[in-house]
Every structure is written in structure tokens, then in C-alpha cells.
Design a protein that fits this description.
Radius of gyration: 17 Å
Shape: globular
CATH superfamily: Histone deacetylase domain
Low-confidence stretches: none
Distance between the termini: 7 Å
CATH topology: Arginase, Chain A
Number of strands: 8
Amino acid sequence: MEWSNAKFFTIHQHDVQLPAGHRFPMEKYTLLHDKLIAENILSREQIYPAPPAEQKDLLLAHELRYIEGIQAGSLPAQELRPIGLPWSPGMYQRSLCSVGGFIAATENAISDGFSALLAGGTHHAHRDRGEGYCVFNDFAVAALKLLSHQRLKKILIIDLDVHQGNGNSSILGSRDDVFIVSLHGEKNYPFRKVKSHLDVALPEGTNDERYLAELENVIKILPEAEIILYQAGVDVLKEDKLGTFAMTYEGIKTRDRMIFEYARRKSLPLAMAIGGGYSQPIDYSIEAYVNTFREARNIF
């Protein structure tokens, strides 16, 4: 593929105002978008506004009652509270575009080899509820749409966010046409994990050497598939305030390179979402995200 022809999708135009002191770094999406352009990793012409997902797509992975409750803002407070983000019409629209943007990334990866959403990875959203800053599950919706519309027979989800994708597993974990791999913190959110097809729970303070050795072992046993959906969370960084690992920029770059090289070696299209990143200052996370795109450009 020609890197200059690859397409990327953004939801930074849907950033919404959060209360002062809120823990979620909403500004990171605009910062990442601007830095990728400033450093000539992506051109403005390669980046497209993420389209909103349609209700029929959401229904592949979510209950109608939940979808309509989010749309109207009518869910009870006890159901909204675990999401961790205040409801607003803007938040609903942003959530639609996160899912629609990842669907677009998967479709473009199939045609071009590689594509990414400059956001997303909402792997904590379940069929009937959201949690952990995740409203709708973009990976689950996109995977189920690929299976039904593209008639794929096997999808590989590689989730390297520091937090286990319990929503991915609750929606997709019982299927044999999806294989979910998760390397995550053993003693970190979500504290009640949902079994994936392959879980590798790592202890607090896991460093580059330990992590990369575990990942190498996982790569050796990955099943055959037709596409990779990659959750490239950088909350494994030692500076991350919501993480439990002690990884460096170089370690994360090597991690990403291993995944991208595997995809190239197997001639598999790869669609990526950026996943978590919560450092203080947020600049550490932005630099780690940008490094991921540098590695993607080098490989693809």
C-alpha cells in the first residue's frame, strides 16, 4: 500500500466540554490530530470526519432500550454513572461517530491494508450498558458488521490497552468467528474481568522486557484470521495515571512494530483505534500515540 493513500478518521470536531477537574482528557483528540499533521506523519487530505453509525449498526451489538435511552438521555442516573461522562446531545453524537469512524476504518483497511480512527477503542461498553468512558462498543459493532456484511469468517482482535476489554468479551467472547487477545493489568480496572479467548494478565510494574516477551509468546500462537482489529492503548506507559505498568516509549514502539510486522507478514488488513491514554501532563500520552503512527508509517 501507499501510505499517502491510507485514510484516517477523526472525531475531534465532536469534543465536548467536561466539568472542571474531570479525569477524562477530552483535549487529547485535537492534540493528536494536530501533532500528526504538524509532524507530517499524516496529511490533512488523509483525515476525514468520522461518519455517525446508524441505529441498525448499533443494534448488532446493543439492546434497543439502551440505544434509545442514550439517544434521549433518559437512562436512570445509576445506569449513566458507570460511563463516567455527563450525558448531552453532543456526547451522544460523539459516541455515534466513534463507532461509525471505526466501521469506516475497518472497511478502508480491507481495501487499502491499513486504516485507523484517531480515537475509539470503546471496549468497556456492554450489550445493555456502558462503563469506563465507553458508551457504544465500536469494536463489537464493527466486527459484527464485518461478519454479516463482508461475510468474513474470522476476525482477530488484539487488545493491548492496559485495561481488559470486558465489553468486547461480554459481547463477542462466546463466538468462534472472533478471537480476542487481551494483555492487560491483572490488578486494574475492570476489577471484574470477562473472559476473552486469550487473556494475559500482567502484574503491577510490568516493564518493557516482561511485556514484550509475553507478547512474543502470544504472537506465536495467534490463530488464522482475515483482518486484525487493533486496540493500541498507550495507557501501558509508566507515566499514565490510570495504568499499572512501567513501559517506556521505546517499549511501546516495539510492541506496535511487532503487531504491524505480524499483519504484514500474514498479509492481513489492520484497522486500529488508539485506546486509552491518561498521562499527566497529557503530552506524554500524545507522544506515545504519535509514535504508534510513526511505526505504522514505517511498516505500511
